[in-house]
Amino acid sequence: MTDLESLRRLLLERSVKRGSFVLASGRKSSFYIDCRLATMSSEGMVLIGRMGWDAIRRAGWRPTAVGGLTLGADPVAYAVAAASFGSDRPVDAFTVRKEAKDHGTGRLIEGNLRPGDAVVVVEDVITTGDSARRAVAAVEQAGGTVLGVLAVVDREEGGKDSLEAGGRQVVTLATVSGLGLKDAT
Description:
The chain has 185 residues and is an alpha/beta fold. The chain has a domain at 48-175: Rossmann fold (3-Layer(aba) Sandwich), CATH 3.40.50. 35% of the residues lie in helices and 28% in strands. It contains 6 helices and 8 strands. The strands form 2 sheets. A 6-stranded mixed sheet has the order 5-4-3-6-7-8, sandwiched between helices. Helix 1 crosses helix 3 and helix 3 crosses helix 4 (73-84).
């Protein structure tokens, strides 16, 4: 079984829920993809790390770090960073908080992001692209340069197209059509 086949199987077994759901975008859907159930599993970490790191290299991106909006992006970033270890260009990870801390350093971004760093923003599921846009804005405000966006799943609801129309290259590991999912609502 290929890594892509294994990832599809894992997503379908662990992450896809059927029913009636309201997504973060406000849209209704007959399925929900709780990607964290796959991305936080040992098998998912290995698959997503390996596939994500390979996708970054195939895209020609040369980041120093990967990260995105907490919580969905966190295990993706950590898996990719771990998979890069031992390569000729290992990357570190960072997390973008939903809000800056109101104590301590007051940081919006935690981890390994310095001004001038070239990064890849990661996402678990792209629907509208809003989470990725928020992460991109935070990275750029912190002085980083965003090379592109890597997502585990594209719901194929316009988010990838919207990000690309805004000048961002987007690479996805899986799509809802590739998972055989079709919205019935």
